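Aggregate trends can hide what the representation actually does to any particular protein. For completeness, the protein is quoted in full, as a sequence line and a line of structure tokens.
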Amino acid sequence: MKERNLVQENIEKLEKLFPGCVTEVRGKNGELKKAVDMDLLRQLLTEGETEETYSFTWVGKRAAMAEADQPAEQVLVPRKDLSLDWEKTGNCYIEGDNLEVLKLLEKDYGGRIKMIYIDPPYNTGHDFVYRDSFAMDSGEYRSRTGGDGKNIPADGRYHSDWCSMMYSRLTAARRLLTEDGILFMSIDDNELSNLQKIAGEIFGGSHFLACFPRITKKAGKTTEAIAKNHDYVLAFSRGDSPRFYLPSHTDAGFKYSDEYVEERGKYKLNQTLDYNSLSYSPGLDYPIEIDGETFYPGNSYEKYLERKEGKHARADWAWRWSRDLFEFGLKNGFVVVKKYENYSRIYTKTYQNARIVRTGSGFAVEHVNRTRAISTLEFVENRFSNDNGKKNLLKLFDSSVFDYAKPVALIRALVQYSTSGDDLVLDFFSGSGTTAQAVMEQNLADGGNRKFILVQAPEATAPRSDGARAGFGTICEIGRERIRRAGEQLKQEHPSAAERIDTGFRVFQAENRGMDEGGRR
């Protein structure tokens, strides 16, 4: 909670590289402080003259950039009365403005968060509640741009305030991620392009990983000609080598068993040893004898003789394995002969949990957990839709209590793919608390000990909403109660794992610093 001045810290770092670019200026309070001569720094870092550059900007961007580096003005106050298992838990639920909280978290959590998931306001015209100190009212916007200041999609301020809000928060959030950490962000068409540009500028364009479309609903009434049934999940990495935990791969083809099934799992037969589409190589064209029967690539002795005389195409029949690899595979159970009515063919076995690898002295059997790549179409199944997000809440409450809650399956999949062990997961637009439930459920599934940090502004529930009718005055009250009920449900359904799963949380509230007798914070 110690106050930091990140601007001055960054200037000191620049001074070590470019001492001539750092000078002194007198601040508003009359004290001297270090500053950067940006014109001189630009000259030193520019090769040749350039008049035009590609840039993405909006009115208020500079203020948003500066705000992310300003010291926090608040402190985190513990609320044991609102917490659950304060003495035992490693989870945190923080109520307050998330920009302030992100700054406060940096001291203890800088570079320690493995995954961040956020579901920020989509800026649909009625869900934007973040009015930062650098956000402009319509009068100021008109004076700086000449616009009329109406908050409609065609107006610049409609996007400017949202972009400024996201820029400062993503800048602060990046500092919390581990070098192999990953950021996931839900968004829809309203701000997709802007969010991708903002994150690309902060994290680096080369650290953009994927844009996953996500189904929001399968069908439904709409007054528009085109029904919008999906949104997106953007993924960015902090460093060059993000660490993923790929999902296990299995399919119906793994249905055969042999004497190795206990150690290798089941196997499938989907590849013959001979192919006619390989670039022809004489070394891969040889006879094989098994149980008194001789095999040739393509099942033809005559064609084999022609190929050996040089009468072959550029791509022609040959074995996929060299002679020494085949002998190793045959000896170790990776080869099977399938007999048909008039002929036989050699197949190679693909085991679920084993494969042949080359070693310095030959070959060996390596035991593996077969995985698959994460598809960009991973989240188009109905279990990832908003309907299931609503069903998740109805299992815990008498009504949905929160509109447009993300489904547990979505965030749990992201947690599974990007974290393990005792990794930390952060959500600083936590809403109803789906991320906490997802972390607890994934820990139950794979034995992990992940911890969550949730941040949510204490927004009032909308009048006459299901949440308000259920007696919840703020979004935070809904989030805390959801975590309590989800944790209790897990313990009831899995009593043997009740002691292992951390379902508690410590509550903190961000509050303004007090003043000393001299009027200082």
Observations:
- DSSP finds 15 helices and 20 strands in the chain.
